[in-house]
Structures are given as structure tokens and as C-alpha cells.
Design goal:
With 302 residues, the chain is mostly beta strands. The protein is built from one helix and 25 strands. The two termini are 31 Å apart. This is WD repeat domain phosphoinositide-interacting protein 2.
Length: 302
Amino acid sequence: VEARLPTLPQPNLITIPPRPVTTTGTQWARFRASAARTVTMANPSLNFITFNQDHSCLAVGTSKGFRIYHTDPFSRIFSSDDGNIAIIEMLFSTSLVALILSPRHLIIQNTKRASVICELTFPSAVLAVRLNRKRLAVILEEEIYLYDISNMSLLHTITTSPNPSAICALSPSSENCFIAYPLPKPREDSDSRRPAHAPPQSTYVSPTSGEVLVFDTLTLKAVNVIEAHRSPLSCICLNSDGTLLATASETGTIIRVFSIPRGQKLYQFRRGTYPSTIYSMSFNLSSTLLCVSSTSDTVHIF
């Protein structure tokens, strides 16, 4: 965000007083219901939260627009009340943001000029969006679309295995401009399993594997396949300069870190003994720390 906007006034909070002695139960219930409706209208529901690529800003998508905050010092620097924002992604600290307002529709908006730069429509719902200064990646359940961010031209379409969790990571770096995602596993059906009406060369795509495919978005070529886990993947992330990849499987007890693009295993961390679903992982800017959050109601820092 190129220009700091004045801080907007906070909505008035409604304090529900203690139940008065002279108020009947029915009257009190009506009062509480009315107050709850007012609070809901004043405070839109939260849909999406994400940091930008260098963690200097926090973007929040709500049912009534989006907000952008500086992280240090923490302050609100932009606010829009337009649209039900399902996904928002920033391009570092610039005024460009990618917005998903309807499932198949993506908008690139300039917040400084309050203008729409381009609009893209996809064949199925957009599950995630990733940005760096060179590329825009749009992740669908079975496809990844890669765009040149300078002119928004479509460069390449990657076919993936079914990926409803949108497990995918794009390096913030413009030099090591890699994207990582679960390796697709196509194989031919055996004659005994293939229906009579199926084409002779029909293929079956297995669920997400524990292997990661590393793809160079500049040369548009796959550079490595990393055998990260035996179980299917649940989360992956790349560091700020695109040289480290962290992976976690559905089991969630072990986190591994690999060099990119060589794929050499550098570190292995144990999160815990009991299985847990890992939802988020992030390196710090100097790549000395890795933060992991999961369904275990804990945050681990390695």
C-alpha cells in the first residue's frame, strides 16, 4: 500500500446491561436478540486472514469488504466496505491486491487508485491465490494457472491430482521463482477394473501423495520431485528466498525441511507424538525459525 490513509473510527460497542428486576423474561430475550442483531451488523464476519510476502502487512477479508494493517507498528492503513471477500492476497507492500468475491471470479485491484486492473474467470472455484513480483498462481482443485504479473497473460496450466485443500506454495523470490505442490499420480487402470464403456487409454489419478513436485515458473519446467513423506501431504511452505521447503503430512507428527531445488533433506523436527492436522507453516525472513500451527491448539517454533 503506497499511501497511508487516516485511521477509521471504530464502531460503537454495545454493552448489554444486567437484567433489570422489573423486566420480564420475554422482554429480556427480545432485548438481547435486538442487541445481537445490531452487533452483527456493526461487525462483519471474518472470512480470511493472511500476511503479505515479507510479513510487513496483514490483510483481512470480511463479509463487508477488506482491511489492510501495518504489522509494526500495528495500525490500519486501508479499509474497503465493498463486497464479500472470500480470499485476499497482497503483492508485498504495493497497492495491488488479488480478491475473490465469487467462487470462480478473481479481481486484481489497485487500492491507491480505487480501480480494477483485470478480472479473470475460471472453470471451477478458486481455492487459493499466490503472488510474487513475477508470477500470479491461481489454484483450483485440479489445476494451477500461472500468469505473468506484468501483463496478466496466461503462461501455463498445470494439471494436478484432486487438491481440495489447495496445498501449494509459491516462492516470494523473483529469482528462485519456484512453485511446489503435491505430485500427481496418474496410472492406467487394470483391465479388470476398467468399465466396458471406458476408453482404452483411460487413467486413474490417485489421491494426494507424500511427494512434492517443484516447478520453475520462469522456465516453466519441473525441476525436482521430493519424496517428503509416506502419508499424503497436509501443508507445505517455501522460505522468502525460495531455497528451503518445509513439509508436513496428514499424520502431523514430523516436519521436514529440504533444500530447493536439489531436494536434500536438511532438518527433521518432531511436533508431537499424537497425530494432528497442520494448517499453517511459515519461515521467518532470515530462515532461522519455522512456525507451525495445528489442530492441537498449540503453536510450535523450531
